[in-house]
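In the previous chapter we treated chains in isolation. Here, by contrast, the input contains two separate entities that must be folded as one system, with a combined length of 833 residues.
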Amino acid sequence: MTQVSVVFPAPVMPGLRNLLSRYAESTMWLARYMERIENLARLIEVTSTSVSATNMDAGWDSVIRINADEGLFFQRHGSASERSVVAFYITDSDNPDSIVSMARYARENARVLRPLISTEMWMHLNVFTRWVMELGPDDVGAGYLSTLCTRLKQDCQTHFGITEGTLYRDQAWLFYILGKNLERADQITRLIDIKYHTLLPSGVGVGSDIDMSQWTSVLRSAAAYHAFRRVLPEGMTPANIVGFLLKNDGFPRSLSTSLRSVYSVLGSLAGEYRLRHCAPIIERLEELRVTLVEQTVEDIIMRGLHEYMDWIQRELRQIQNEIAHAFWPPAIAVQPVGPGRMEQVQD
Amino acid sequence: MKMAAQAAGLFATYDIPDFFCELLNRGKDIPPPGLQLVRDRLAHFGLAELRRRAAAVEAQFYRLGITFTVYSDREAIDRVLPFDVIPRVLTATEWDHVERGVQQRVRAINLFLHDIYHDRHILNDGVVPHELVLGNANYCQAMVGLDVPGGVYVHINGTDLVRDRDGRFLVLEDNARTPSGVSYVLEDRQMMLRLMPDLARGLNIRPVDEYGPRLHRALAEVAPMGVDNPQVVLLSPGIYNAAYFEHVFLAREMGIPLVEGRDLMVEDGRVYMRTVAGPRPVHSIYRRLNDDFLDPQVFNPDSMLGVPGLVDAYRRGNVTLANAIGTGVADDKAVYAYMPRIIRYYLDEEPILTNVETHICAEREGLDYTLANIERLVVKPVGESGGYGLLIGPHATQAELDEFRALLRANPANYISQPVISLSVSPTLCPAGVEARHVDLRPFAVTGRDTWVLPGGLSRVALRKGSLVVNSSQGGGSKDTWVLAS
């Protein structure tokens, strides 16, 4: 049959150059939620394999601490067992930090963005969210947890792949990259902050198998195990691990790589798109990067790793707030979909 | 009456009722070759195969999220508009008639709206009663004396048509406010070509995919004078609106931003949208928001969906609204009754598409007739849409008839009545097999410098056996409408 369209004069696409503030905000949060889901799924999976080799329930509390959910969690559960933590973080829709909640927020942000994103992006998110929402207690049992987490991670990675392959490269893309990398930076510093102590000798069994397995599990939680092996085949020490996760420029999830992406995106927004208000944000970011470059990991640890991670997280929140202020200022602030932990007021 | 032997297969058990059937019973006329081809191909499909494809269609719609969204407490529930895989086919001759009729009607409606908001000749000449227009709830004082670009009030119009026992097209109602449903037309077509390619092959079906560019061009054409590269936006109530999918769809088809009220602001009588680069001017707004919600300064002061100052900017001619404000007076069910006279008055032509015979209960004669014949009539309240609050006489109980008689006596001006039309049917895949179901047709007309009618339109089908109500909110579904090019 004939499906010949009438040819019209070149369409005017003015909308593409001036991204609606509301779209920018939703794009950023879509990326953040999907990144957060992937990180959480990986953390749960690694925790489940590493604790099962040692003590049944030890280790699950660190998942809660990484997410700073002690308050809400212990209101609802007596102790941090595998069962309670997994339920809390995967299927509990009353927990805003659970995967089911975040998948819903991601989809609602995508719903806002439907005029902008590709049909493939929307379709995948829609199917993914429906699947997550239907997960029941049987799907998250010990025997299935690893399979489930693998699928969750894969769906996030599919999302990132579809986005990379189909999202038009304009400001929306830049805000997406911004959200993804701010989230990664936040996640890696949380992970280091909470997990560092497990790397340290605990008096007994220095250099024993248990230490090694703790170290690998920290690397695996950041999807860094093989990359680390390639770069430092012999050098598995706590300082090297922390140094790799913070400062390695080749590792895609290291703090320095994430900050470099944020920096380059802000540069494009200020340069190619001539957006105002980028300068103070870039300045703050430069400061952050300098502290990372100028200190060795030994310096950082000596001066206090926890304090440094804490400071970086505060700076990241400040950057997020300044971005919000610059591109979706309070006068027009729209309620982003979902009460995630880093929205609007960050502390 | 059972089908003749030659069209067995799928239709072997098709019980053609005593109605005009779009596919299988066109009275004495010999069906044109294209139509015969569709019917022969369908006959060879077999019920199981047709069901398999229907299931695939539904799954696809669901994955794509082509849905109504119903928000309950905290969950978003997506409902798919039921879609029937058997297309409704119109010949080139039939379409030519419909197209000319719709264009004529849109022309008359625009002239009528201009007149009633300016000199009111038609009222002063006694063709349409003063109070019917000026006392109409949809008559908008803010529009009085305002000149809109090109004299176009109704840029997007949907005309609901039915066919009677003889296959004659009749206008059931006009939709001159914010008619919806066009996204289904385009999506249904996509889906049909993907899942029933063997049914469509070789037929010269008029394409529907130029709707977006046509609409964008029309909206640019009516932008305020002197704007070179007008910024067109679609204004939506947001993701909680049941038709949000359609808003998204149209924004994408036109390549324009979908905005909500909070994305727009008015300064010095000009409209801007809030972008990451700061405020950017907006010139033409395809609004999918009812009049009442557009501007809290002028209409509903509680509206959070609208834009304060929008009507002022509009009145200053700095922005175009499509459709214009106050067009509801033209698609009012009471004004509808006068539409043939309105067409003759402005165009000095006979209406190409006729109205269903309509009795105006505000007039003595009409009320008496309606009360005397209520069991044979459809009685409709004039303000409602969506098939609510109407009485279908032949299907009503004695108590319902009595109740409506009382309503009519209490407030006659609120009602019109029409004879029950033996709506045409179209074969439809039902739980028990392929059965006849009633259909209507809503062609969409887009008006900028001129009026273009999307070939086909939305065919809605009443999925319940015998039902005449095709509205999606009341169990209706849709069919792809094929207009044959020759």
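Residues 92-116 of chain B form the longest helix (25 residues). Residues 84 and 479 of chain B are 5 Å apart (CA to CA). Compare these points with the single-chain example from earlier in the chapter.
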